[in-house]
Amino acid sequence: MTSDNTLDLDVVIVGAGISGIAAAVALGQNCPDKSYAVLEARASIGGTWDLFRYPGIRSDSDMYTLGYSFRPWLRPEAIAAGGAIREYLVDTAAEFGVDKHIRFSSRLTEASWNSELNRWTLVVDSPVGEDVIRCRHLFLGSGYYSYRGGFEPTIDGEDTFDGPMLHAQNWPDDLDHRGKRVAVIGSGATAITLVPNLARDAANVTMVQRSPTYIHIETGDDPEADELRRTVGPEETFRRIRLRNLRNQQEVYAQAKGDPDAFKATLFDAIDAQIGEDVRKQHFTPTYEPWNQRICVVPDSDLFHAVRDGRADVVTGSIDRITPTGLTMADGTRVEADIIVKATGLDVVLGGEAEFDVDGWPVEIGREWTYKGAAISGVPNLVYAFGFINASWTLRIEALTDYWCRVLIHMDDIGAEKMVADLTDGEQPALPFISGVDSGYLRRAEGLLPRQGDAAPWINPQNYADTLDLFASVDDGVLTFS
């Protein structure tokens, strides 16, 4: 069933999570005369922070940089629980009037650009059937992974397991782990968050990892921020700590790349102090260099306290098979479990799994190039949100939305209806969308994300200063307006 009336708007924003709300606020502040709607496939605001409900879900970036610059994070915790972040996003949307523009339970399925009309035609699955929306500009704030389910590698013997087996992305409300033996498969941010939280009530929790991940121990609260709140107030504190953390993130990344041995020593010394050098060498010493994959944060050493106290343990190696009572490793080690949780990562997508075409020609995103890490070669009037890998997501999103609004204003000033960046095959080498990071989910997505070249503007920098430089110019001679 298709609705009778076609809605005609200036802008459609896809997604009501961190990126979509940031885009809507920026649009409302900089281009207040533009009509817009936010399409949210789910029934509530929050994106990642509404979807993930596993025990202990929390930020892996400090809230002074993950929070918005235009709405200070005023709570004392620097690393925040998922529920608190979701509440922050809901309140932000309400404060800036974004919530009035959200169309819930509305999933974008098709987006077609028509060069005669200079318009996008969107097909949207909604509670009343198929809606059709036309718009001049499309902003994809739907994140970079599938909400339908996580990455689930098949393990021999899965069908023989006697207990519940689930992926952390699809955590059921009624799962009772109290007094049970739980095996968590994975070593990334989800696993190291789940293990100490499950260990509070479970009989035992075992983290089963193929290989270790770099882990940085941080304090859950920020003592300097606590002191500043008493002297200059919460809003000024947010501004100062945000700037401090922004600089620190860039400096730490530069140190990790420039002197990896010194950087590793800092991480390892902190872990050794909690569980000893022998355990650290066996289970928490990766074989790759720092920041070849994202570094995970453990606030207040909670994971290592659980290991040290015997409430959790770690098994490192390849899994041979699942058994009725747990799993068996390739070296013969048995892990007994009543519940198995796969914390095995995400399935990467761009654009919320919608199909895109330009004048009837399908857009194969993985065969195109990224323009400034913000647009796709040959695709008019479309911007997508993709944050930093090595720093807080929101830092890049706010730089992007500021740039996007300046582009929209420029188009109005010169009377342009269309913007597009074109690149001919062979002009740039085809490099991965994210350089220098070898995480599994990015390797699996190389054919799905746009490629980058080796020269601006066909690049996707992961440095904040370089990103600001790239976004400084609106009319750079490559992005064409007509």
TrEMBL record:
Cofactor annotation: FAD
Pfam family, one: NAD_binding_8
UniProt keyword annotation of Transcription present: no
Any one GO MF annotation of this record: NADP binding
InterPro entries named among the record's database cross-references: FAD-binding_MO (IPR051820), FAD/NAD-bd_sf (IPR036188), Flavin_mOase-like (IPR020946)
Gene3D superfamilies to which the protein is assigned, alphabetical: FAD/NAD(P)-binding domain (3.50.50.60)
Keyword terms, alphabetized: FAD, Flavoprotein, Monooxygenase, NADP, Oxidoreductase
Family affiliation: Belongs to the FAD-binding monooxygenase family.
UniProt-recorded name of the protein: Monooxygenase
Organism of derivation: Gordonia spumicola
Lineage: Bacteria, Bacillati, Actinomycetota, Actinomycetes, Mycobacteriales
